[in-house]
Amino acid sequence: MSSVSLIERRLLKWNKLSSLLPKPIEPLLLPIEHVNKLLKICADSSYLRIGESIHAHFIVRNQSSRAEDVFQINSLINFYMKCRKTVRARKVFDSMPERNVVSWSALMKGYQDSGFDLEVLKLFKSMSFSGESQPNEFVATVVLKSCSNSRRIEEGKQFHGCFLKSGLVSHEFVRNSLVYMYSSSSGTGEAIRILDDLPCYDLLAFNSALSGYLEYGAIKEGFDVLRRMAIEDSVWDDFTYMSCLRLCSNLRDLELARQIHSRILRAGFKWDVVVRGALINMYGKCGQVLYAQRVYDDTHAQNIVLNTSIMDAYFQNQCFEEALNFFAKKMETKEVLPNEFTFAVLLNSIAELSLLKHGGLLHGLVVKSGFRNHVMVGNALVNMYAKSGSIEDARKAFSFMTFRDIITWNTMIGGLTHHGLGREALEAFDKMMIAGEIPNHITFISILQACSHIGFVEQGLYYFNQLMKQFGVQPDLRHYTCIVRLLSKAGLFREAEDFMKTAPIEWDVVAWRSLLNACYVRRNYRLGKRVGKFAIEMYPKDSGMYILLSNIHAKSKEWEDVARVRSLMKKRRVKKEPGVSWIGIRNQTHVFLSDEKRHPEIVLIYVKVKEVLSKIRPLGYSPDVAGVFHDVDEEQRENSLSHHSEKLAVAYGLMKTPENSPLYVTKNVRICDDCHSAIKLISRLSNRLIVVRDSNRFHHFQDGQCSCCDYW
Ligand SMILES: [Zn+2]
Ligand SMILES: [Zn+2]
């Protein structure tokens, strides 16, 4: 065979083989509709990388800069907004040669979803001004929702007029957005007027009004809407039922709650976890922890949402220990992995019980579980430390927080005030202003109390008369009472009386008790007797008034009047709330009543009290028997004084904890004068910090002094 024919044969074979090989790949040329679809998938699933490649693909093929490319450019805006890349979306929008209404609405919706509601309103104004496109119902809905979110009712009214002119208001979605805007931003009857003008009953519009009023806190209006919905006798949807449960929780109306519950049952409503959680929450708020428990027990698939709901129901009904025990039980069986809500409920329960040690342990668990940076958990930590007596740890928890909201600031300022740190509270208030947080009515209560603690009368009046107005905070009874306290504590009794006479408010027992207490502490016995006489007639069931009046008579050595007040109290069957104090020692809480007999170590405790009291006598302690509320002889009076619950708790703490370690005691009612002066001296004698939380505030006893400066 010649060499030529060999080559020919090989070539032939090669050609045969190569025909079987796949053809070389052409550059990818997907039709534009397919690319747009792909971009939508990227937007919905936040596939940033792939979406960016598509954008690059558009640029290479010059498909994103011509007027006819508006469709895919709009898709790009939508994609970047869904991936939370607002700046890039804006760049794409700004470089568009021509825009249509979809371009505008995509950008607005994106801004709204990212929480930039003011930007939405600005964009809408530029859109109207440029005249590029006319708003459609989608744009109108977005704009009105942003007005609701940012509570810009005045601008909302202008837009309402604008949509009225263009006829968009007749569109169902726009109308419902209007209803929601008016109800959620102003709580006024405007939303109801729109409902009145409806051609026929519309469930969605009524739902919008109901949830809007609830959002605003206009409970009465919300209830009116619900009543009208009940009269219509139409079918309700999930949304209606959830709003109803919320309404019942707010109203704390058990009867209504049960009616709604039975309506849910009759409607054969789908029982999902959210509804059950809402039901448990509702019964908890209505004070029916047993009903809440029953709903919980009926649920087969229990999860963290329901577990937290039932713990919260315990918390709402002051069953703090039950909430903690429930959690401990679930932790043991590993049935529960706590979330941020669980931690908040637990920490707040611990705060109410002042269990500093348990709080510290839970703090460790928070850190381990990775919830430390959650605002709600951070707030609960600050609250727990402040209420458990360690304001220093509260401050640390506060400074550790990356994000803070109004509750964070209020908790910190309130905590400082409760600990009598008025100056620090006012400093924190200044920092809050610098941080741009807007104070609310709770902030001002703390601030006025802080002023009262440190005797800043002028500043307090400035906050009350000027600053509250500037921030649009309407003063209520609590603020007015703070002013009575501020003036009377400073000894300005005439001003306090004038204020009480002229203030446009109906005073309650707390205000009168504050004034009477000031008379007692500031030794204005003349006014005290006048106020006390009036107060026990006005509030004949309030034991505190009798005790204060009796103490005032005792201080003036008017023993007959003391006897008269006491017999009046007996005749009217007014009982003094028994004093209870507790102290936590090594994971156990020890509770003491006055004249306690049941504690296993009570004999030793009495010996300790006697020993300590005899040691502080040379330091200046003399029992203040004037305040003792029993008709007994001198020796018995002293005995009864020395067996006060807070003295027993402190003595037990001295017995059971290492030298120099701080003691934290909690008392259910106001600490009495005698215990106050005794504990001051005990703090010096034992060289310890003793923190007592009573019903009013915290007392930090150290080196013979108390942080309250003897006024509480
Ligand atoms: Zn006492
Ligand atoms: Zn004190």
From TrEMBL:
User: What's a single GO BP term from this record?
Assistant: RNA modification
Q: Which PROSITE patterns match?
A: PPR
Q: What is this protein called?
A: DYW domain-containing protein
Tell me which family the UniProt entry assigns to this protein: Belongs to the PPR family. PCMP-H subfamily.
Sorted UniProt keywords: Repeat
> Is Repeat included in the keywords of this UniProt record?
yes
State the PPR repeat positions.
Answer: 69-103, 303-338, 405-439, 440-475
Under the heading Pfam families, the entry gives: DYW_deaminase, E_motif, PPR, PPR_2
Q: Name one GO molecular function term.
A: RNA binding
Superkingdom to which the source organism belongs? Eukaryota
NCBIfam families from the entry?
PPR
DYW domain sequence ranges: 620-712
Tell me if Membrane is a UniProt keyword of this record: no
